[in-house]
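Example 5.3 — ATP-binding cassette domain-containing protein
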Amino acid sequence: MTPEGQALVAQGLELTTPHGRVFGPVDWVLPPRTHGAVLGVQGSGRSAFLLAITGRMRGLTGTLRVGDLDGLRQPRLLRHRSAVARITDLVELEPDLTVAEAADEHALADGIGVRRGRESFMALQEAIDHHFAPSARVDTLSAYERTLLAALLACQRPAHHIVLDDVDDALTVPQLQELYRAMDLLGTLGHSFVVSALESSPLPRGAAVLHLPPPQTREALSLSFGHLRPRVITQES
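Solution (predicted structure tokens):
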């Protein structure tokens, strides 16, 4: 069962580096069992914000809570209560794996075991009425199918919220709307997504929206994960 009845609350949440402000200060509430959408231009800190709300970014100030969990003081617990479907250039599907191999690898990484992972993956496909060929290689899938697969794999274990970066990347509007329909079906099972997208993109139905302002300086605009990488938590420590 996923945690229910707990809102994610950010108050004055901010990330700055010697190269400039990445995002914030942010005040935002994600109600229980609700999808979220983080919107902004390139360089506005969308990816960093998604890492922050999953306990995978150091150097934050302000407040971040999920129910009684203090996300800044207990980042390890926040990582366990959340899941990452995709963070562009940091967390993505391995292109050389088959769908079956990707599902097994993800289940092992999540600590739920291959057998439980396979059962969960099959049930998730049934729920959205979309079945992947187990032998299909990830790099042969369309952009829509790769995004959908990443979303399903992140649902293999219970999580309070799942983040999906650049949800609108390479998708047409009809494909994005179809993806959101699948997310709504997954939502009935208790899976809430927080996606990032450009300001002009369609949104999930009833989403709690956060608008990140454009970077204020040229230094902030050029900020890359090359600068952020020492602060990003990519594995358990």
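Remark. Confidence is low (pLDDT under 50) at residues 218-227.
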